[in-house]
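Example 271, ligand S-adenosylmethionine.
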Amino acid sequence: MNIGESIAKKRKALGMTQKDLAGRLHVSFQAVSKWEQNVSCPETTLLPAIAELLGTSVDSLLGYRSPILTDYEARYQNGEYYWGFEPNRFCYEIMRRKPPVKPLKVLDIGCGEGKDAVFLARNGYQVTAFDLTDSGLEKGRILAEKCHTYVDFFKADLKDFHPTQDYDIIFSSGVFHFIPPELRSEILESLQTHTKENGLHTINVFVEKAFVKEGPGKDKDRYRWKSGELFTHYSNWLIHKMDEEIFDCNSGGIPHKHCMDSMIAEKKPLP
Ligand SMILES: C[S@@+](CC[C@H](N)C(=O)[O-])C[C@H]1O[C@@H](n2cnc3c(N)ncnc32)[C@H](O)[C@@H]1O
């Protein structure tokens, strides 16, 4: 799909007219019409604003699909739930440490097909969850509906996600190795700032160990963390749990191992 078709498709899906979009971008509706007919292209400087208004990314407008996106979209387009329905054990830790005796807001980052987000919502949390994949999010919505619960699922890229509200609990499993090292401090600081006092972060990351042989062909756009690195970003928080474990994995049909650091940390008020 070219950029004009992309704009037209997303604009129509949002129920916007060409005039609406043009007005928001301060351009003429004829300009929008020309983009959509591929007679001309929008100025490069307008692309971020167009993407934001249409609820998408510049990459997606330009038809770029990252290998990660393609990989997970392919896994999730199958009718089965790739990750199953068993909640992550962190979910039980969350329930034990912060039971939903009052409305508690949870953010699930890189929620995949939504099994953990839906589990937490069913148990009384107000859950917001995002992922890069449309197919994962769609399956999450279906699962929530089947379970008679609601999760605010939306599409976003963790690398340029800016929280607009504060959360009681931020949860992420198997996702942070997609953050390049140079973006880690900024992203974690932003998530920490948007966490309420006494709020929790429950996060795990894949780490590199010289003696652990990873599976083949999975290095592109994945950046394993240094052992212990995650914890160094939480020196002012109360660390309830930090663990490192090595486990077997058979994804892709080739037996291999992973090393993972897991952490539960609580934001404490500063004096
Ligand atoms: C290993 S799966 C984990 C899914 C889910 N957390 C679970 O445990 O079932 C990694 C997920 O991260 C998502 N992901 C990868 N890069 C991302 C990014 N930059 N922003 C948001 N999600 C991303 C993928 O689409 C995928 O669903």
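Summary: The mean pLDDT is 92.
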